[in-house]
Amino acid sequence: MYSLLAKREKAHQDCIWSCDWGMLSPPGPEKNGDQPEGEEPEKQPENEPGQDIIVTGGLDDMVRIWNFTDGEVIDRHRLTEHSLGVVSVSISNDGSKLASSSLDSAIHIWDIDSGVKLKTVENGTVDSWTVIFSPDGKYIASGNRNGKVNLYSVETGKLEETLDTKGKCTLSIAFSPDGK
């Protein structure tokens, strides 16, 4: 992985097919959970408001989340739930979620801060070649090899709308800035 400021050799074990760059949303309230009294919580990467985040997806079936700080690319999370090459990744506009699609036909929604998978969108047996969040973060659009664009609810993971482009493959999609 390369930028004008930094490069990261062997960022993935195979080719990187997709990347996105965004800002991590400001941290929420402290999570104490069931931490035993007197024990230090596990140290996590810095969560500064405005933290630059880079997400990559590769043929090694992995999604990686990186912090980009002071010109350095620092590994944050390695997400390994896909079973075939990751062909598309997208960060929500608020920087809280990540969507990834793979040749295994799965679309996963992740929490960027923790790296926890929040949901798997049921997409059937059709490859999802591209994913993108709507500007308001409520929907994910996905293009597939059958030329269809599917719109899924982020909250429920359910299919909301389908647009048949009558094409053979939808490799790239975008929302207008107002989401209409």
* Biggest beta sheet summary: 4 strands, antiparallel
Number of helix segments? 0
Computed structural class: mainly beta
Order of helices and strands: EEEEEEEEEEEE
Shape: globular
Q: What is the β-strand count?
A: 12
Stretches with pLDDT under 50, minimum 5 residues = 30-37, 39-47
Arithmetic mean pLDDT: 81
The residue fraction in helices comes out at under 10%
**Any idea what the radius of gyration is?**
17 Å
Distance between the termini: 34 Å
The percent range for strand residues is 35-45%
Which strand order spans the largest sheet, edge to edge or round the barrel? 1-2-3-4
Task: Give keywords.
four-stranded antiparallel sheet; globular; 0% helix; mainly beta; 180 residues
Structure in words:
The protein is an all-beta fold. The relative contact order is 0.14. It has no helices and twelve strands. Residues 30-37 and 39-47 have low confidence and may be disordered. A hairpin with a 5-residue loop joins strand 7 (107-111) and strand 8 (117-121).
Short description:
The protein is mostly beta strands. It has strands spanning 16-23, 52-58, 63-69, 72-79, 86-91, 97-102, 107-111, 117-121, 128-133, 139-144, 148-153, 159-164.
